[in-house]
Structures are given as C-alpha cells and as structure tokens.
Design brief:
Layout (H helix, E strand, L loop, with lengths): L2 H16 L5 H14 L4 H7 L3 H18 L10 H16 L5 H12 L7 H11 L8 H15 L2
Helix pairs in contact: 1-2, 1-5, 2-3, 2-4, 3-4, 5-6, 5-8, 6-7, 6-8, 7-8
Length: about 160
C-alpha cells in the first residue's frame, strides 16, 4: 500500500468511525497499516500501539490529533461534510469488493434515507431492489446503476 492510499484509508476509517460504521479497534488496525505503509507521526504511533481494550477509550482523543498531524481532515460528528465522507467511504468499500451493490444501497438508505442530496440516487436504487418483482428491471441492471453511483461518489 502506498502512503497516499494509507492516508486515504485512515481518513475514510475516521469518517466511518465517527458515524458508527466501524469500531475503534478497526481504526487502530488501520493506523498500524498506515505505519507499515510509511506514514508516521507521534500520535499515529500512539494510536497504532493501542490494544483492542484501549481502543474505545483512546481513539476519540487520538484520532483527531493523528489526522491533524498528517494533514488529513476529521469531520465533526453529524456534519454534512462528515455524512458525505461516510457515503464516499462506503462507496469505496463497495468498489473494493467489501460489500455488494445491494448492501451499499441499503446501508446508504438506512443511514441517510432520502435526506442527503449526495446519496439520493442510491436511496432510490435501494427502493428499486424492493420492487424488482413488479417491474421490468433486473438485479444486474440495478447493480450496474449502483456501481455507477459509487464511481461518481468515489472516482
């Protein structure tokens, strides 16, 4: 993994953690991966050294400091920018094969409903999965539309 990819992964994990999509221990694992990839800062070393038992207590204090030291962005919990960062991170996970297109559409719809303009199309596509039996579209067609939306979110 390149240092740039590691930095992006760390920033994505921060956004996902702030919205409850990943556990604090996952952030610590990502910090370890970032160190191995060549990123380094004092707070990153402290974060990577956390045990699973310490993660829930230490991540809230260390993660903003890590991102600041590395010149990365930490979005405030509940902010529009944070919600959009989570949507982009989930899209990246789907594109990486970590979830199916249907899972992405469902998670986006479940998390944001039809309220987040950036993800409105994905929420609508989740609705389409629910009515496939009554229309002329196939799962493959809706999957392709979800993939196109994921690429738009995370090119």
């Amino acid at each position: 993994m390149t240092t740039q990819a590691a930095a992006l992964a760390l920033q994505d994990h921060a956004a996902l953690w702030s919205m409850g999509e990943v556990r604090a221990a996952d952030v610590v694992t990502c910090a370890c991966d970032a160190l191995v990839a060549g990123l380094d800062s004092p707070a990153l070393r402290m974060l990577a050294a956390c045990t699973r038992a310490e993660a829930d207590y230490d991540v809230p204090d260390l993660l903003p400091q890590v991102l600041d030291e590395l010149g990365l962005t930490f979005h405030p919990v509940g902010s529009l920018a944070g919600q959009e960062a989570v949507a982009r991170a989930l899209a990246a996970r789907m594109l990486a094969g970590e979830m199916t297109p249907r899972e992405l559409a469902f998670r986006i719809h479940q998390r944001f409903g039809h309220e987040l303009p950036l993800t409105e199309q994905l929420a609508s596509l989740d609705d389409e999965y629910d009515v496939l039996a009554y229309g002329d579209r196939t799962v493959a067609q809706v999957d392709a539309d979800v993939r196109a939306e994921a690429l738009r979110l995370h090119p």
